[in-house]
Amino acid sequence: MKRPAGRWETTTGQVTGIALLFVSAGMLGSAVIESIGGDQGLAMTLAALVTLVPGAALWLSTRPGQIDRAAVFSAVAGTWLIVSVFGALPYLFAGTFNRSGIGFPVVLADALFESVSGFSCTGSTVFGSHNLIADQGPGILMYRQFTQWIGGMGIVVLVVTVLPALRASGLGLIGAEAPGEGGDRLAPRMAQTARRFWYLYAGLTGLIAVALIAVGMSLFDAVAHAFTTASTGGFSTRDASIGYWDSVAVEMVIMIGLILGAANFTLHSRSLVARRPVHHHDPEFRGYIWLLTGATLVVTILLVDDGMGFTRSLRSAAFNVVTLGTSGGFGNATGPGSDGDFVRWAAGPQLILLILLMTGGCTGSTSGGVKVMRLIIGISHARRTLRGIRHPRAVLPVRHGTGVMAEPMVERIAGFMVVYGMLVVSGTLVVAALGTDLVTAMGGVVGSLGNMGPALNRAGPTASFVDGFSTPARMVLAFLMLVGRLELFPMLLMLVAPYRTLHDRVRSR
Amino acid sequence: MVGALAVCSGLIDLIEHGADSSTLLITGSGMGLLGALLFGRVAGPDKARPVDIIAATTLAMTLGILLVAGLYVMTGAAQRPDDALFEATTGITTTAMSVIDPTGLGYGLRFLRSGSQWLGGFAALLVGIVILPFFGFGREFADRSSSGGFRPLAPDEMSATRNILRLYIPGTGLIWGGYMLAGMSAFDGLLLAMSTVSTGGFTNGANEFADPSVQWVAIVGMLLAGSSMVTLWHLVVGRGGLHRQTGLAMYLGLHVTGVLLLVLLSTGIDLAAARRLLFVVAASVSTTGFPMGVPVGWPAGAPVLLLLLVSIGAMSGSAGGGLQIRQHRALMKLALREMARQLHPRAVLKVRLAGRVAGEDTLRQIVVLQFLFVAVIFSTAFLVAVFGLDLASAISAAVHATATAGPVRGLDGVMVDPTEWSRSVRLALLPAMVFGRLSIYPAVVAVAALLNLLRDKARVRRRYRAHRHGGSL
Questions:
Q1: B361 to A378: CB separation less than 8 angstroms, yes or no
Q2: Whose CB has fewer CB within 10 Å in chain B, the N or C terminal residue?
């Protein structure tokens, strides 16, 4: 198709414009639901229109330009930032976070936090006892769930499905957004690959919704929770999250859904093609299942040792290990101090949960965190280095499964882990300096960077982030959520871009 | 060396008419004789493998800990063997989480306690300047070049050891003199000087740092003890160029930034409080861990800042612990290189440290060192959490033990007494102290060597049994 002349050549503008159109469509859908069952339908429609206008303007006035690596990072990071800002509009227009004694800056910050937490699939929330989820209309609640669903597979991946003009550059865009080490091709064309990912994702969401209805959830709750289970997001339509149902069957469906959502979608695709599961052939998936099983066993033993009965311990341990190990972030606590309220557990199990907050799921999934593959390769790299001290002249490759990893890939993973560690440490320091205690700060930073959801101590599964963190600290966490969702580099490079431009100008003079 | 220390302690106890002199003298002489016999009679291999030397370092430190623990048990300084083991480990590893009340000890035992830290500090210097660069990694950073006609610190292993002693002993004397000038008695000053120069942190009374002039001497002593021996050597031989040493700048910058942040976060800070904050920061960065009360209005972010300073630690090539500054600089440069590589994947980007290009092998080992450091902290924190500490205390205790940084400070700023912890918690901290004092690698290599040895023995035994039962090999 020939493009009309006179359009600005900017990939960032084009991708952002289309992304805003998708988001406004989601807002409109939610506005319809709100009009039926709530009283903020008009406000949400207004938010959809305010998002639609700049989206359409950008789409119509721009065209994809030359794509180099810098453009890829700026397109992805810029899109996520702008979508997160516009995504806060329904909360602002509906007055969701207005409460007495709170000024507009805090309301704005809360709306931004909820929006970023939604799109980045983190699941941390500023709703709480001061502002109950139960008091919100169905449209707002469904919109919250929708932000996680659209963010789970990736906004840019969604854009690539309808933007064939990007051709091979689409792989770079998907790679910059997708969790893990670059994007896998499922089809010869990138738009087809992106579409196939979305079909799989939508199929998984549908399956989870049907299963949740089968175990007793209402249609509204089932669809809402299917959105946030497939995306490993963790938002719920209830204040007590999954603990509201207090049902083992519901918890089982959520756990299976989360495990599938946090597994590599390429494996799901291959399984569909082969008409049998191929997941067990993948070393990362095997490691991931071992990790979840081992952590569940250890936490169960420690909880039993702490006086909780075996069945209750196993149920609480399994659900919380899976929900945090997959970066889901749901809670099964029925109230503060109940079995699932892990901040009341002994320190040992909490430390295991903290480690799981960092680990995350598999590459190519909707989950966050460091990812199991990076962890396996990191351990293999450490073993190789230690063996190198014993055998200085030996040529020792880093293995992953039966394959040998290329050295540049190993170096990239090592570099990623170094940057990740530095962000955790510096983030914890900044959040603590803004008035948070050590454990809450560390839990919040690790949870935000890994897009996990609840933190530890004062921001646990039954608490709000308003209770645990000051407003500036919540803004730092929101930034870390975006950094973590985009696998660190796009957002960080966007930060250093002005410095680089200035530096280049000074040098050229 | 432990035998010599015990004999010295015994002699001091004898002069002061203490009750432990005979035990210390006899046991120390026995240890010394046995050591001399082994040294004289047992011939080393013609060519020792680096891994053997690294593993032997760990073995020597472990043996030193056991011998000092034995002395504590025999003299009755510690009532239980596990208390003796904990005290000896915190001494030799310069961690200083003491469980013995020093005011109840005689002169000889107090000298033994501080002397064990002095020996531990010397061992840390040997590991950082001789063992690791010559037999492990980071050879490019050993000060071996005699360019410009200046004597390097470490032209070879033996000269490096001699040069370290040339700095370490006068350094102890200098700080001792400082403490005496500040009004301390000769004996107390000597003990505190040994604990300062080794970044050990043992004290011999509750109010040793009440006097501001003693505080100033301790601050200067801790700053020197946490500085790189290479930097100090360049200063001594007149090589100059200190202003170009980015490691030193970062080390001093950490102190300044730490104090400024604490002052900004705290409320009601006067000059005396600022001095106490400088003391706390110096004790954290150098990982000495001397106790000091904090001003009223201790902020929530302060414990996190101090934990960060402790884990960063002192300069590489010093007696201080932590991951150390050179490693952090390398990691920061690696992070920047990784960001640059995202934009230019095929660019050849080298990492320069201290004016030298760091080898890719060295960088790889530093990354793995960070990985192991975090792994040791988390596994130790998990163990002590299982044994009953709350999460914040578990993380804090694990970081302090791995960084060999002394007593743990609670979230409210008050020093935590290790005797309040259960025995299992204290025992769980011991491996982290040893791993941290040996800069992780030697201890890991020694454990791996031990496991390999056991596996080989088991394999030989299995084959032998199979052979005896008529099976073919």
A1: no
A2: C
Mutate to test the interface with B, among A411, A413, A504 (most CBs of B within 10 A): A411
ipTM: 0.85
Q: Which pair of structure tokens corresponds to residue B432?
A: 């982290």
Is the predicted pLDDT of residue A2 greater than 70, yes or no?
no
The whole-angstrom separation of Cα A42 and Cα B225 is: 69
Residue A124 has phi, psi (to 5 degrees) of: -75, 145
Closest-CA residue of A relative to B134 is: A389
Name which of B448, B299, B171, B201 is nearest A389 in CA terms.
Answer: B448
Instruction: Give the 3-state secondary structure of residue A400.
Output: strand
> B 186-215 residues with CB below 8 A of A?
none
CA A397 remoteness from chain centre: 33
Element (H, E) at A469: none
Give the side-chain half-sphere CA count within 13 A for A72. 23
Q: Indicate if the pLDDT at residue A122 is higher than 60.
A: yes
Tell me the per-residue pLDDT of B18-49, one tens digit each, with 9 for 90 and over. 788 888 888 888 888 888 888 777 777 777 77
Nearest CA in chain B to A380: B368
- Residue A91 in contact with residue A118, Cβ under 8 Å? no
Return the DSSP state at A63.
E
Contact B392 A438 (CB under 8 A): yes
Binding-face residues of B in 116-145 toward A, CB within 8 A: 136-137
The three-class DSSP label of residue A56 is helix
Residue B473 has pLDDT above 50, yes or no: no
Chain B interface mutation, best of A389, A395, A440, A483, highest count of B Cβ atoms under 10 Å: A389
Interface of A with B in 426-485 (CB under 8 A): 428-429, 432-439, 441-442, 456-457
B301 near A CB under 8 A: yes
Structure confidence at residue A170 as a pLDDT band (50, 70, 90): low
3-state class (DSSP) for residue B415: strand
Alpha helices in B266-359 (DSSP H): 271-285, 302-312, 325-343
Per-residue model confidence as pLDDT tens digits over A88-113:
999 999 999 988 888 899 999 999 99
> From the list A386, A418, A438, which residue is nearest B334 (CB)?
A418
Is residue B37 helix, strand or coil? helix
Q: What is the pLDDT of residue A368?
A: 85
Find the residue in A nearest to B394 (Cα): A347
- CB contact residues (below 8 A), chain B span 239-278, against chain A: 261, 265
Distance from C-alpha of B179 to C-alpha of A203, rounded to nearest angstrom: 75
CB contact under 8 A, B301 and A73: no
Q: How many inter-chain contacts (A to B, CB under 8 Å) are there?
A: 136
| Contact call for residues A255 and A319 (beta carbons, < 8 A) | yes
pLDDT for residue B245: 77
Each residue of A210-248: b (16+ CB within 10 Å) or e? ebbbebebeeebbbbbbbbbbbbbbbbbbbbbbbbbebe
Q: Tokens 């009283």, residue?
A: A39
Looking at the complex, report in whole angstroms how far the Cα of residue B378 sits from the nearest Cα belonging to chain A.
Answer: 8
* Residue whose structure tokens are 């801790």: B222
Q: Please tell me which of the candidates B50, B299, B334 has its beta carbon nearest to residue A392.
A: B50
Residue A100 φ then ψ, to 5°: -65, 140
Q: Determine the distance from the C-alpha atom of residue A421 to the mean position of all C-alpha atoms in its chain, rounded to a whole number.
A: 18
What are the φ/ψ torsions at residue A9 (nearest 5 degrees)? -90, 95
Q: What is the pLDDT of residues A192-250, one digit of tens each?
A: 777 888 889 999 999 999 999 999 999 999 999 999 999 999 999 999 999 999 999 99
Look at B361 and A432 and tell me if their CB atoms are within 8 Å.
no
pLDDT, tens digit, for every residue of A152-161? 877 777 667 6
Give the length of chain A: 509
